[in-house]
Amino acid sequence: MASTSASVGMPDLRIPSVKHRRHVRLNWQAKTLIPVAGALLNGVLVFLFTTLTLLPNEREKVLLVASAGAVVICAILLITLAVVVRRPMLELQDKIQRVADGNLNAQVGFSDRNDDIGDLGRNFNNMVQQLRESRQEIEHLHRTQMSRAEHMATLGELAAGLAHEIRNPLAGIAGVMQIVGRDLPPTSPACDVVKDVQEEVLRINRIVSDLLETARPRPPEYQLADLNSTVEHAVSFARQQILSKPIEIEFRKAPELGLVEHDPRQLHQVLLNLLLNAIQALNGGGRVTVLLAQSDEKTVSVSINDTGLGIAPENLTHIFRPFFTTKGHGTGLGLPLARRIVEDHGGKLEVTSDLGHGSTFTLVLPFRRPRPEMAASA
Length: 378
Prior knowledge:
The protein is built from eleven helices and seven strands. By secondary structure, it is α+β, with helices and mostly antiparallel strands. Strand 6 (about 350-355) and strand 7 form a beta hairpin.
């Protein structure tokens, strides 16, 4: 009789095919309750059948059967919760601990489930993947910064030695050439040679000065000053270099701009260097636009755009390295020095370029430079 009742009372709990389950989404609560509801329904049917068929004096047996059914239902519930919920939660806890220990290759295995817990697994795996990519990027940036630090350390040692080994004999050569040039007749062919030598001596002295400035920078003298005036001063100097050339330099001020904390002398040096580079990139004719604007409540930007030759993409990542230059007469120290000065001001120097159409260098500066104690607390 029991077998008959079971065959009559048991609902159809056949598991659908895998292909069908992929299109059916059930949350974990439903997955937990379905087997419990099946067991409960089967127990109710068995209870009703035995109640209607047994004699009154056998009611105690019925109550015993019902109690056993309740125990079975609780057991099924616990097993279902363990399989559906607890097992993935324990796995997730283990993977989180591995991630906390630095293992960013940890992945949960229940991310292919088509329910809420599967969503949790997929979100966890995506988060770990993003963390892994972020760590790789940070490691790359760290290696880049270490390479820069090594370059600067080498540069400092080189500059210290060159300062004494070059400048003293260079001053002697300059003095001798001045005397020779003064004693030569004005019509002597050697006058042109002396003039060329004097120009080369000045060029060598400029290279040594830039090298020393890069390796042993002068501390900035910050003050609240009008950045419009600083930029305009650099623009006026640059315009003196193009008086006889078909080149136009346009300066767009920011009249409502407040005072900006900076070293006018050092920023003038940076801006003039960028302007002269822009003029040289024009190859004889074109336009340079200098735009001063307030980026947001805390920063201001100065962009220098030229319509020149542009910079090749393979060179963009190297232009701020010491001694790297695409000019035959350049030293490769101007842009590294400019970036260091801007970074000392708490800002950044950015560049974009379109080969054959020009380049844009942008200085982004804070209105008030960050204090060391503020940076440490942040």
